[in-house]
Amino acid sequence: MSRWIAVYQFPLDKDLSELALFIRRHRLPLRLAEEGNRQVLATPDPQLGEFLLPLLERWEAGEIDLARVHLEPVETEGAAKGEDASATAETAPAESGEGGESKADDEIAVPSPLPSWPWRKTPLSLLLIALCFIGFFLLRNDLAESLVIYPDRGGDFQLQNSTLAWHWAKGEYWRLWTPAIVHFSLPHALFNALGIWILGRPLEARAGTLAFAALVLFSAAASNLAQYYWSPQMVFGGMSGVVYALVGGVFVLQRWQPGWRDVPAGIVALAVGWLLLCATGLVTYVLGVGVANAAHFGGFISGLLLTLLYCLAGGARHFSDNTAGNSAAA
User: Fold this and answer.
1) For 204-240, b where at least 16 C-beta lie within 10 A, e where not — what string?
2) How many other C-beta atoms can be found within 10 angstroms of the C-beta atom of residue 164?
């Protein structure tokens, strides 16, 4: 007989009737039992437990209704012969193996590793994604002149005589942030939009739009200033500095709250690796495109610092989840 493995733990006062109905509806090889002062959900299949963990975490946090969740079946042998796979999953009784263990998990599709946050919880992230493409459209139609910081043409850079000071003297303070909107190519807009989708939406949904807006506004200004000071003679644009601030934020939160799994593992390592690779100049040499390395580093550092302050102020509690073997309540 297979050994039952704990998947998730709930407080004794937690009503699990909705979860029990969900298990029965999908014929999942799961069981609920009281152990000590906790209600423990267990399965003989560790892979199934790993697949269901993000779903259970979101249900525990009150973000989803299990009654409205449907696990789509994968193709079975019957489906390969022309039968309706979905009907098979709904009507066929679960086969019983040795010791009464269900084989219904063979018909369960893998849930997505990325949470599907409601739109109302991530309005600013969706706006930023739209602005990536709006900025590209404006640039292609020669309408972005009022959004960028004019380059300095002099040899010795002095802030008081710079074009940025000239913009500020005219009251054009928005130029400190708006270069983040301008994108010089569609792939650049796509990659930044994808970064905000993967990193920004979980951060905004958990921390709230106000805290997320503070991170975006601060990091956009910091990354634009860093790039302007580093290369004042160049026109620059793009939301990569903000994306790298999100990378820095996720880096801090994943170490402050190891149980937080909204962002796939390895994303931060991949982003930091790309940051260092671009800094070597190899990407510019091979692809022939300019990279705003100072904006990337400025955004990353600002994201690290702001998120560290956020965690020290107690904000990390919004990123706390119950996991199997952890008896603390979320």
Assistant:
1) bbbbebebbeebbebbbbbbbbbbbeebbeeebbbbb
2) 20
Q: At residue 41, what are phi and psi to the nearest 5 degrees?
A: -100, 130
Name the active-site residue from 240, 302, 318, 320.
Answer: 240
Question: Among 26, 167, 183, 296, which one carries the catalytic annotation?
Answer: 296
In the block, residue with structure tokens 């994108």: 183
pTM passes above 0.70: no
Q: Give the three-class secondary structure for 328.
A: coil
pLDDT tens column, 172-221: 999 999 999 999 999 999 999 999 999 999 999 999 999 999 999 999 99
Per-residue model confidence as pLDDT tens digits over 33-88:
888 788 888 888 878 878 888 888 888 888 888 887 877 654 433 333 333 333 33
Concerning whether 296 is annotated as a catalytic residue, the answer is yes
> What are the tokens at 196?
């905000």
Q: Which residue has the higher pLDDT, 223 or 14?
A: 223
The strand pairing partners of 102, in sequence order, are 96
Residues comprising the chain, all counted? 330
- One-letter amino acid at 154 equals G
Catalogue all structural domains in the chain, each as residue range(s) with its CATH number.
Answer: 5-107 (3.30.70.2080), 119-319 (1.20.1540.10)
The partner residues of 11 in beta bridges, in order of sequence, read 38
